[in-house]
Amino acid sequence: MAQGQGRGSAVALGLALLCLLIHSEIAESATYTVGDTNGWTFNTDTWTRGKRFRAGDVLVFKYNPSAHNVVVVNAAGYRGCTTPRGSRVLSSGNDQVTLAKGTNYFICNFAGHCQSGMKIAATAV
């Protein structure tokens, strides 16, 4: 009789796990190339319009590293096109950044580039 109870418990546990898997949302991260085929360049500030980002999505910044860079900034750095102390500066020309929940801000801090629209704000839910 004890063996039948053990089998019943295993079946119940299996069904519970199956229900959990069926009802859980499986979220896969997406990868986006910033600026699409143009890459990370001037007038990219509107590139995020109409896109829905999720935390964990990856942004790929493709650019000529002798002409541009990518700086992860805060909201004030984004608005003022400034590089706050301690900002992460990327310069490989093929940088990948995983989005955190909330608004993620990026600029190019080469002189005049951010002011020419080389900045994005990507909000991830």
TrEMBL record:
It comes from the Eukaryota. The keyword Nucleus does not apply. Residues 30-125 form the Phytocyanin domain. Residues 1-29 form the signal peptide. CDD domains: Plantacyanin (cd11013). The keyword Zinc does not apply. One of its GO terms (cellular component) is plasma membrane. Keywords: Copper, Disulfide bond, Metal-binding, Signal. SUPFAM superfamilies: Cupredoxins. Pfam families: Cu_bind_like. This is Plantacyanin. It comes from Phoenix dactylifera (Date palm). The lineage of its organism: Eukaryota, Viridiplantae, Streptophyta, Embryophyta, Tracheophyta.
